[in-house]
Every structure is written in C-alpha cells, then in structure tokens.
Write a structure and sequence with these properties.
Elements lengths: L7 H10 L9 H6 L20 H10 L18 H14 L4 H33 L11 H18 L1 H24 L4
Keywords: Mitochondrion, Ribonucleoprotein, Ribosomal protein
Main location: mitochondrion
Protein name: Small ribosomal subunit protein mS23
Length: 189
C-alpha cells in the first residue's frame, strides 16, 4: 500500500474499486463527512518575529546587562524591560514620532525607571536602619542575582549533601582511573 497516494479514505476507495478489499462499514459515513485535510508544509520552519524585535535587539546592544532577564515571560504581568522598551518605541512611532526620537525617549524612560527603583530601595534600607531592623531583600534585584539566588541551594547541596558528595567522589575516582589508564597507554609510569 506504500505505492498508493492519499489519505485513508482515498486508499480504501481504491482498494474497494479494485476488488482487493470488501467495502468496510464506515466507508459511507466517512464519505459523507470526510476528515479535515491540512495543507502540507514545505519542511521549512518559519521564524516567528514580532514587530518590536528589532528594537529589542537595539535595547540589548545598549544594555547588555539586561540580557539575563527572562525573555520567555512575554505575556507576564510585568514583561521584561527589553519588551517594554520595544513596545514603547512602537507606541511612540504610531503617534508620529521619528524612530530615532522614539528610541531616545524610550531609553530615557527606562533609565529613569531604573534610577527610581534604586532610589526606592535605598530609601527602604535607610528606613530599616533608622528603625534598627534588617533591611528587606531587594525587590528589584538584577537578573544575575535572581539566577544566583535560584542556584544557591544547588551549590549548597554540592558541598553539604552526603549523597551528592558520594557521587562527586565516585566521579573523581573514575577520572583518576581514566587518567592513570591513559598515562599507562602512553608509556608513562
């Protein structure tokens, strides 16, 4: 049947007409309501691009430290700064502002917002010091510090979890044996 083209319905019709197979019970029902056919792709995956993508690239070029923000959260309540920048540039362009001016305005807004967040946290720390309390954790940490905070427990486990220590010691022993075997093959004592 591999030489026959078409879907299940077409193939079955050909077999029934050629008397190679008796007519199945479901054939008439399937002819009355055939299954949906989907267009075939040419095998190439098309790149998805959003209108703000060129501006996001420009933003990352200007602010490389923000590359570590989670860009996957496109529809989150607080999208990443790069996406906000791109959307703001598009918004300004729709209002009739030139591209260069829109980029400059969006960039200055981003910088002002970043400064305001730093000032707010500095004020929080100052209030905590005056009250004699521990300062609160930074509500606006850098993306790198957020990633490090997530990984901290795994790094801690590496040194203090006995099961992981056993695995690590076993890996060290295997590597030492491998190096020794490699050295003996090369004629080293």
């Amino acid at each position: 049947m591999s030489y026959m083209r078409g879907d299940l319905l077409t193939r079955t019709r050909k077999l029934v007409k050629g008397l190679a197979k008796s007519e199945p019970i479901w054939l008439k029902a399937m002819e009355q309501a055939p299954p949906a056919t989907f267009p075939r792709t040419d095998g190439k995956i098309k790149r998805i691009s959003l209108p703000e993508d060129p501006y996001i690239k420009k933003f990352f070029h200007k602010h490389p430290e923000s590359k570590y923000h989670d860009a996957i959260k496109i529809s989150a309540f607080d999208p990443p700064p790069a996406r906000m920048f791109g959307l703001r540039v598009l918004e300004l362009k729709e209002q009739g502002v030139s591209e260069e001016e829109a980029i400059a305005v969006a960039d200055s807004e981003y910088r002002l917002e970043k400064k305001a967040k730093k000032k707010a946290y500095a004020r929080l720390k100052e209030i905590a010091r005056v009250q004699g309390k521990r300062p609160p954790p930074n509500p606006y940490p850098s993306a790198i510090k957020e990633i490090q905070a997530e990984e901290k427990k795994y790094v801690h486990d590496r040194f203090f979890n006995p099961k992981i220590r056993q695995i690590l010691n076993r890996m060290k022993e295997e590597k030492a044996v491998e190096l020794q075997a490699r050295g003996s093959r090369l004629g080293r004592p």
